[in-house]
Every structure is written in structure tokens, then in C-alpha cells.
Specification:
The chain has about 240 residues and is an alpha/beta fold. The chain has 7 helices and 9 strands. It has a 5-stranded mixed barrel with strand order 5-8-7-6-9, surrounded by 5 helices. Strand 7, helix 4 and strand 8 form a beta-alpha-beta unit. The longest helix has 14 residues. The radius of gyration is 17 Å and the shape is globular.
Length: about 240
Amino acid sequence: MSKNYPTPHINAIPSDFANTVLMPGDPKRAEFIAKEFMSNSVLVNDVRGIQGYTGEYNGKRVSVMASGMGMPSIGIYSYELFNFFGVENIIRVGSAGAMQDNMKLGDLVFGMGASTDSNYIKSLDLPGSYAPIASYSLLKKAVDTAEAKGFCYHAGQIVSTDVFYSRADVNTRWAEMGVLAVEMEAAALYANAAKAGKKALAVLTVSDHVFTGESMSAEQRQTSFADMITLALEIA
């Protein structure tokens, strides 16, 4: 492991982080998880307001740190955690827009693979089109836990986009390919995990439906994702 720490983005040392880090986009959600779901939580990073905490869940050490919005942002934080701070697993916990008719607000989505419209993958300079996928072991744990707890979930392809306000016809074309939901970070996370020989999974909650217009409020997005957070902590 490189000793390139602290970095410009994380003012910590490797021992400050657990092997597994939950990674929401919103720093407030990271604080919420640490204070409401974990015990003995300690703030280990606050550079640029990107809060990171390490504590315990059911007696096991676990960390949570925000990623910010978009693939460039999670690309930086996940790269540094994997390559400089010794983190082995990152579980993205965030919101997603549903794209299929059978999906409802509050449903869980496990991203088996993450298609993308981003140029982030091109930075790997591979001689073809790389397909970012989740860690199978983390995915299996997520499915098994959801089944045991009776959570409503969908596992399959998601799409990570750089464009939040995209045209409706773009979403329609992804949906026609069976894509379950749209979000903005997983493809970069999966690519960084693969490059580093580490594990990653996106566990998402449906916060809105792309085609019906249904949506949660900002407050609901922050506080009502209990199933997702519980599941992620269980598999951590």
C-alpha cells in the first residue's frame, strides 16, 4: 500500500478507516448514518466538508464517508480509500431514479452492472468497452440479507450518468434495454475497485420514478432510507 497520505482530500491515516466504508453522496447522510445507526463513531475526515466517520455496528468496526456528487467526485475519494488507505470494500448507499414500471418509491436496487455515458472509463485507456460490474460476493450478501429481512429489491443493470437533467428520450432508450434505474456514481466506483483489486457494490433506494414523476422530498431522501442503510451495515 502506498504511503501517499494524508491526501489533498482525506486528512487521515489508514488505521482511521475500517476495511469496509459505506459511501453516501451527501455529507449530511454520512453524519446521519454515523450518529443514528453506528455506535462510538469518531469523525476521521472533514476536508471540504466531506465527513467521514469510523465506529461500530453490532460490535464490528465500520466506516462511512461521503463521496460528493458525480463520478469525478466518487472517483477521487474511492481511489484514495482503495489505494492509499487500505480500504477493501466500498458500498455506495444512495438514491436512484426508477426506470421500470414494477418499481416503487422506497424499493432497493442492487447494481449488478453500471452502464455509463461518462468519459471516466476512457481514462483506463483499455482497447475496448469496459463493463463495470459489482463484486459478486457483496451482491450475494445483499440479496441474501434482503431476502431474510423481507425487503423489496431489484437486482440488475443500472446506468451512471453525468447529466442530471437529461432528455426524456434518453431515459426511454436506457429503459428499453432493461436498465432498472439511473444514478451518478457507481460506474466510476466499480472501475476503481476493479483496478485496485478491491470490492464495491451500489445499494440504492428508489427516490423518484423517471417516467411517472413520483418523488420523495429532500428531507425524506436524507432520513427515510433505513432499509438501505441497515442492509449495507449488515453486509459490511
